[in-house]
Amino acid sequence: MEIPISGFMCHSSDRNQNPLHSHHLYITSWDGRPIHVHEFKGVTSYDDGHDHRYAGTTEPAPSGVQHTHRYFTFTSFNDGHRHQVKGVTGPAIPLPGGNHYHEFRGVTTIQGRTPHRHRYNGRTSR
C-alpha cells in the first residue's frame, strides 16, 4: 500500500561549523490531507520526594480523519535525574468550531538514586 506524502527537507550548508550535518524532513500532507501536531505539557505525580515538569510536541498526524499521535519527551532534571515520557494519545475529542484535543496518560521510565517512576496525564493543545 502506497500513501503519497509531501513536504520539504532542510539542511545546514555551513560545513565549517558542522561537517557532519543532518537533514530534517517536514511532512506537510499525508494521503492528500494536511497534517498537524499538538503541544503537551504537565507535572508528574509526586513520588520519592519530588515531581518533574515536562513539555513537548506530538508527532504529526493527518487532519480531518480519526487519529492518535505518538509523543516523546524528557522530564525536567530534578533530584539528580530525569525520566522519559512517551506513549500514544487517545483519539481526537472534537471541540466546537472544528478543533480537537487528545487526552494522554502513562508512567515515566524508572530512574533516580532510589529507582522510581512517576505517573502523568493531561490534554494536548487544540
Kindly describe this structure:
It is a single chain. The chain has strands at 5-11, 23-30, 33-36, 39-43, 53-57, 61-62, 70-74, 84-88, 93-94, 100-101, 103-107, 119-123. The chain has 126 residues and is an all-beta fold. It has a domain at 37-123. Strands 1-2-3-6 form a four-stranded antiparallel sheet, with no helix packed on it. A hairpin with a 5-residue loop joins strand 9 (93-94) and strand 10. The mean pLDDT is 89. This is YmaF family protein. It comes from Oikeobacillus pervagus. Pfam families: YmaF. InterPro entries: YmaF.
| Strand line-up in the sheet with most strands | 1-2-3-6
Which range best describes the helical content: under 10%, 10-25%, 25-40%, 40-55%, 55-70% or over 70%? Answer: under 10%
Distance between the termini: 31 Å
Strand content: 35-45%
Number of strands: 12
Shape: flat
Could you say which structural class the secondary elements and strand pairing correspond to?
A: mainly beta
Task: Report the order of strands and helices.
Answer: EEEEEEEEEEEE
Low-pLDDT residue intervals, each spanning 5 or more residues: none
- Major β-sheet annotation: 4 strands, antiparallel
Q: Kindly state the mean pLDDT as a whole number? A: 89
Q: Helical region count?
A: 0
Radius of gyration: 18 Å
